[in-house]
Design a protein that fits this description.
This protein is of the alpha/beta class. It is built from 7 helices and 6 strands, in the order E-H-H-E-H-E-H-E-H-H-E-E-H. A 6-stranded parallel β-sheet has the order 3-4-2-1-5-6, with helices on both faces. The chain is globular. Bound molecules: 3-methylbut-3-enyl trihydrogen diphosphate (2 copies) and magnesium ion (MG).
């Protein structure tokens, strides 16, 4: 069975779903002699600009990496700063997102998060659940491996409870992931010049295009996102098959 549906639109139509590893906040601040926390604060402004620019570029879904399961390794003060950003982002932007038809979904584990953050996440999801113009997925306390393990465990629990039978297949596992129900990821972008996934969307990355940009996340905005769309349009997505473009005539 193909990893992506055969009806996946050609790349020339542009990506519907862009996933972003928002990296480089610390280096942005460091370059200015500022504390890392200022870099994270500027990163939230970049996120707002990017979400606002996406629909006009034909994008219907953005998934952004806000906090990884490995980011708990950072100093407690920085972890608490990053939690604080969720509070301020939702407090300042939820009304606008709701009004503009954006559905917010938070991917990742709620276990271990402060109770007020869990309530904020639930409120954001509930108040925007009816929206369908745009899907904003925020991966927070998210790890790709943990997400796959949870999906497998969910299936095992259903089998043990007599609610499911048969061997686990790709479709069933995919339905257990936190991204289930959303459009397939067309392109994964990482900013800051690093070239790795850092445990982001491991399953979904199977046939996603990859784009690495040298811009530090706080400097991100409509221009950088338009550049991603342009690069994506020029990709030839084959999914293991052959190019849809006509072969060059032999000279
Ligand atoms: C990305 O910026 C934000 C998060 C990981 C939450 P970093 O904080 O990783 O910035 P750098 O990589 O140290 O520059
Ligand atoms: C990935 O960035 C996590 C987020 C952007 C939230 P990191 O900065 O944590 O990744 P590494 O440590 O450079 O791999
Ligand atoms: Mg980083």
């Amino acid at each position: 069975m193909p990893v992506e549906p055969p009806e996946s639109p050609p790349a020339s139509e542009g990506p519907r779903h862009v996933a972003l590893i928002m990296d480089g906040n610390g280096r942005w601040a460091q370059a200015r002699g500022l504390p890392r926390t200022i870099g994270h604060r500027e990163g939230v402004q970049a996120l707002k600009r990017t979400v606002q620019a996406a629909p006009a570029l034909g994008i219907r879904c953005l998934t952004v990496f806000g906090f990884s399961t490995e980011n708990w390794r950072r100093p407690a003060e920085e972890v608490s700063d990053l939690m604080g950003l969720v509070r301020s982002y939702v407090a300042s932007d939820l009304k606008r997102l709701e009004r503009e038809g954006v559905r917010v979904r938070v991917l990742g584990s709620r276990a271990g998060l402060p109770a007020d953050i869990v309530s904020i996440i639930e409120r954001a999801e509930e108040t925007t659940a009816h929206n369908d113009k745009f899907l904003l997925q925020v991966a927070f306390n998210y790890g790709g491996r943990a997400d796959i393990v949870e999906a497998a465990q969910r299936h095992a629990d259903r089998v043990l409870a007599g609610q499911a039978t048969g061997p686990l297949d790709e479709e069933t596992l995919g339905q257990g992931l936190s991204t289930a129900g959303g459009p397939p990821v067309d392109v994964i972008v990482r900013t800051s010049g690093e070239q790795r996934l850092s445990n982001f969307l491991l399953w979904e990355a199977a046939y996603a295009e990859l784009v690495f940009q040298n811009v530090l996340w706080p400097d991100y905005g409509p221009k950088a996102l338009a550049d991603v769309v342009e690069q994506y349009r020029n990709r030839d997505r084959r999914f293991g098959g052959l190019s849809a473009a006509p072969a060059l005539a032999a000279c």
